[in-house]
């Protein structure tokens, strides 16, 4: 029998992890909402972000929080390059071509990671002069708490950017009606580039934050892609609140499953939830995105 | 445009039939005139050819991009393993006809098709990107569960088969099965069934308006495709006599399949054949030259071919030849 | 010198040649109508001017500079606003946000321009907080025109502004077009509704099967039987 305390601890850890999942999913959701493309390389971009933090941490001793900023910058550039060099050519060519191109990109990243960084899992460590937050039965560990706060902060900043800046408005206008966006003078090619950049940067941030909690290896890409997509599906495309709630649901469900069925069923649960939501409520629990589209 | 692409792969002349028979005969004599090394390569090529033919039917003709094809391959491999070597999974002895490798091979395909039959109606509630990701998730679930169930899958230690058919008979059996699969798919895509599949590929809404039931045709494509992928997996298991969840269910099988079909040309019968040959050359050449970076080059090939040669090598070659004839005609008439 | 000068324009969609040797000009302050039956190529010409399509051949000169190969977003920056056929509004955004997006390239005078648009279309002010997708067809048309005005254009391109509207609303829209022109904006409108178009226009051109067939002042064209005839049969 699992004690209530242990369950409470498991749930709270799941909620904190969910914040990072939401951050990863937000990038995917943004790209999907605007370009109508599921970024199959999203998990691999996240993996790269994790490695940027890991390399800076192990080689230069930089705090992974600083590493995260570097990862965002690097991934922003990678996102823009991907859009310019590859996606721009296939994004309006139906669904097969973008799927296949992004699949190829994911393979390249995975293989390059494996070749240059090794197959062994690595991680970073967050050293802060603070202890955890003690809530009676539940102890919120410093690294989990800090990563959660940073993740939610980035989600909120992204929301503010979309809601209150003219570039944010242009992004949302483009997602609603690309033709109309061009007629009002929005350079939609630039908006696509920016979206890919921001989406990749968010994935990179999530990867850096995850590296403080779990080891990263070059094969984690597919798993995090499916997790991020599960959150997007749970929360609905284009809903920020939905994405946060979806992240928390997924993080909690995973941790509770691992507690009762063992760690190897963590991902089985994730993918099952994902398939179930996709099938039963394709518009998501909050948003307006459609699985039938 | 689209419909033209589909007719490219149809062998219309007796010459093509003759050429196919020559290739078939050549494949059959490989083990008798070459070394075991080349027989091994030919065996691998046949497994890839079946996977390519299988995925091409579903993705190239019916337009359903599955990223979980490794699941059917792995299931076929495991069904063959369970039937021929039940003791390793703690199963009771399987009576004779079922435990015979030839029967086990066919049942490997049937097993994969059964899983497609059960999951298909559910998966096809998803479309486009969602279907692609859904199949990726489905395959991940199957792999994770089988990896965890060590007692029936052998876990990471693996599963040793005791099929006892010998290398050359297994190879010859695979040649026959691969040929039948290729001809079978050729017949399917040129039948009314294939017409329906292409119709939903081109425009699902319009097709259903014309009375084509999309789900029915997707299911046919899915079942046949899973069956052939299962055959490929079973052949692989019977030949290698050792499998584990990673070696049979990993995403690399899906990747290689995609490379083959995309290289060759999606939606053409000859595409997977061309793709397999080119892939075998590239794969063996690349691995010896590049070692660990072979997958990177494969990824780059997928990207470049999809962007610059969307009809694949075979398709582009065909249009190039057609275009040249056309301009020759124009030159003589003008 | 003309504000917009189009010479020898040829446009094709892929292999299909649709516009042949078209010449016309629009002077600053004018309202000019491009008339023609459905499929004559009117929309194609508008899309070519604002950069959505590239011409095969010919020159488009605006304000003394060639804009033949311009991108649509650049055209807006230069002062050309295109109100497309079928309205193309941002259905999930509010009316006000739609108008603000119209000022994307010219945010400086947003307040003034918003006032001006509300003055021409008071209905939009009443509906400012409403989702644009919930507006009636006529209101959406007003919104599309208003959004075009938000960039404070020198030249307003209107594509079938009255199409599919109830007669009362058609009058409202043409009245608005007249007022917009009176306030100093040059208007180039594409219309199937000959009568109303020639009522507000100073001059007109008649397009048939991708070629200019007739041109003249609004009065001349209004009295010319060939205008009506060009709408019937090939």
List the keywords.
heterotrimer; A: 293 residues; mainly alpha; ABC transporter involved in vitamin B12 uptake, BtuC; two-stranded antiparallel sheet; 11 helices; 2 strands; 74% helix; globular; C: 234 residues; alpha/beta; Rossmann fold; 10 helices; transmembrane helix (chain B); ABC_transp_permease (chain B)
CATH topology of chain B: ABC transporter involved in vitamin B12 uptake, BtuC
Known CATH architecture of chain A: Orthogonal Bundle
Order of helices and strands of chain B: HHHHHHHHEHHHHEHHHHH
Structure summary, number of beta strands of chain B? 2
Series of H and E elements of chain A: HHHHEEHHHHHHH
Largest interface: A-B, 45 and 42 residues
Q: What structural class do the secondary elements of chain B suggest? A: mainly alpha
Q: How many separate structural domains of chain B? A: 1
In the predicted model, the low-confidence regions of chain B spanning at least 5 consecutive residues are 1-11, 330-334
Bin the helical content of chain A: over 70%
State the major sheet of chain A.
2 strands, antiparallel
What is the CA-CA span between the terminal residues of chain A? 44 Å
Strand order, largest beta sheet of chain B: 1-2
Strand content of chain B: under 5%
Shape by Cα distribution of chain B: globular
The strands making up the biggest β-sheet of chain A line up spatially as 1-2
**Between the first and last Cα atoms of chain B, what is the distance in angstroms?**
26 Å
Tally the beta strands of chain A: 2
Rg of chain B computed from alpha carbons, rounded to a whole number of angstroms: 20 Å
Kindly state the mean pLDDT of chain B as a whole number? Answer: 86
Shape of chain A: globular
């Amino acid at each position: 029998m699992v004690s209530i305390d242990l369950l409470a601890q498991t749930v709270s850890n799941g909620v904190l992890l969910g914040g990072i999942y939401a951050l990863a999913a937000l990038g995917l959701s943004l790209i999907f909402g605007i370009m109508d493309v599921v970024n199959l390389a999203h998990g691999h971009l996240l993996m790269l972000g994790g490695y940027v933090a890991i390399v800076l941490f192990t080689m230069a001793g930089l705090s992974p929080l600083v590493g995260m900023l570097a990862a965002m910058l690097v991934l922003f550039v990678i996102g823009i390059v991907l859009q310019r060099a590859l996606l721009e050519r296939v994004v309006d060519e139906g669904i097969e071509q973008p799927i296949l191109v992004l699949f190829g990109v994911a393979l390249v990243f995975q293989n390059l990671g494996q070749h240059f960084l090794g197959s062994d899992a690595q991680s970073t460590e967050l050293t802060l002069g603070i202890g955890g937050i003690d809530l009676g039965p539940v102890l919120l560990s410093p690294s989990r708490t800090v990563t959660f706060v940073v993740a939610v902060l980035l989600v909120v900043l992204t929301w503010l950017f979309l809601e209150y800046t003219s570039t944010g408005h242009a992004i949302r206008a483009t997602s609603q009606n690309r033709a109309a966006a061009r007629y009002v003078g929005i350079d939609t090619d630039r908006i696509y580039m920016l979206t890919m950049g921001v989406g990749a940067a968010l994935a990179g941030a999530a990867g850096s934050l995850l590296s403080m909690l779990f080891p990263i290896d070059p094969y984690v890409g597919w798993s995090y892609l499916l997790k991020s997509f599960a959150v997007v599906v749970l929360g609905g495309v284009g809903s920020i609140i939905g994405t946060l709630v979806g992240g928390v649901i997924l993080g909690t469900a995973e941790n509770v499953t691992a507690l009762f069925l063992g760690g190897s069923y963590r991902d089985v649960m994730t993918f099952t939830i994902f398939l179930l939501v996709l099938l039963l409520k394709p518009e998501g629990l909050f948003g307006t995105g459609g699985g039938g589209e | 445009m689209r419909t033209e692409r589909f007719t490219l792969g149809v062998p219309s002349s007796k010459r093509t039939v003759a050429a196919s028979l020559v290739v078939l005969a050549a494949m059959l004599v490989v083990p008798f005139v070459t070394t075991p090394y080349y027989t091994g390569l030919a065996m691998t090529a046949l497994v890839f050819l079946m996977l390519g033919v299988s995925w091409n039917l579903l993705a190239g003709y019916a337009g359903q991009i599955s990223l979980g094809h490794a699941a059917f391959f792995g299931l076929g491999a495991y069904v063959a393993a369970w039937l021929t070597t039940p003791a390793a999974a703690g199963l009771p002895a399987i009576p004779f006809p079922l435990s015979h490798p030839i029967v086990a091979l066919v049942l490997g395909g049937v097993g994969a098709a059964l899983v497609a039959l059960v999951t298909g109606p559910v998966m096809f509630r998803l479309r486009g990107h969602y279907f692609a990701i859904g199949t990726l998730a489905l395959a991940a679930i199957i792999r994770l569960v089988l990896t965890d169930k060590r007692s029936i899958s052998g876990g990471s230690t693996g599963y040793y088969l005791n099929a006892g058919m010998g290398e050359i008979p297994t190879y010859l059996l695979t040649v026959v099965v691969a040929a039948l699969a290729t001809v079978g798919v050729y017949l399917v895509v040129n039948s009314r069934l294939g017409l329906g599949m292409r119709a939903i590929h081109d425009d699902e809404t319009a097709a259903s308006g014309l009375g084509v039931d999309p789900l029915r045709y997707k299911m046919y494509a899915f079942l046949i495709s899973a069956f052939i992928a299962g055959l490929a997996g079973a052949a692989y298991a019977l030949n290698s006599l050792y499998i584990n969840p990673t070696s049979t269910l990993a995403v690399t099988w899906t990747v290689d399949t995609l490379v083959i079909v995309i290289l060759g040309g999606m939606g053409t019968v000859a595409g997977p054949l061309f793709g397999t040959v080119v892939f075998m050359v590239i794969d063996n050449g690349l691995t010896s030259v590049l070692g660990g970076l072979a997958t990177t080059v494969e990824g780059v090939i997928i990207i470049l071919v999809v962007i610059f040669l969307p009809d694949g090598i075979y398709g582009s070659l065909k249009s190039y030849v057609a275009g040249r004839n056309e301009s020759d005609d124009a030159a003589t008439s003008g | 010198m003309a504000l917009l000068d189009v010479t020898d324009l040829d446009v094709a969609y892929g292999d299909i040649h649709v516009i042949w040797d078209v010449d016309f000009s629009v002077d600053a302050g004018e309202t000019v109508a491009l008339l023609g039956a459905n499929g004559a190529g009117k929309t194609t010409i508008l899309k070519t001017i604002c950069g959505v399509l590239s011409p095969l051949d010919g020159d488009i000169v605006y304000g003394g500079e060639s804009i033949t190969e311009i991108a649509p977003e650049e055209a807006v920056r230069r002062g050309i606003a295109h109100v497309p056929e079928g309205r193309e509004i941002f259905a999930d955004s509010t009316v006000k946000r739609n108008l603000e997006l119209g000022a994307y390239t010219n945010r400086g005078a947003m307040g003034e321009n918003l006032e001006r648009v509300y003055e021409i279309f008071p209905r939009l002010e009443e509906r400012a907080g409403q989702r644009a997708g919930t507006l009636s067809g006529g209101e959406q048309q007003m919104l599309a025109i208003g959004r075009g005005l938000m960039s404070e254009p020198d030249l307003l391109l209107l594509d079938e502004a009255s199409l599919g509207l109830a007669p009362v609303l058609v009058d409202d829209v043409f009245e608005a077009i007249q007022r917009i022109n009176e306030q100093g904006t040059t208007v180039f409108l594409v219309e199937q509704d000959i009568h109303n178009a020639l009522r507000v226009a100073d001059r007109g051109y008649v397009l048939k099967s991708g070629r200019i067939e007739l041109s003249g002042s609004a009065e001349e064209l209004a009295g010319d039987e060939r205008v009506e005839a060009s709408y019937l049969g090939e």
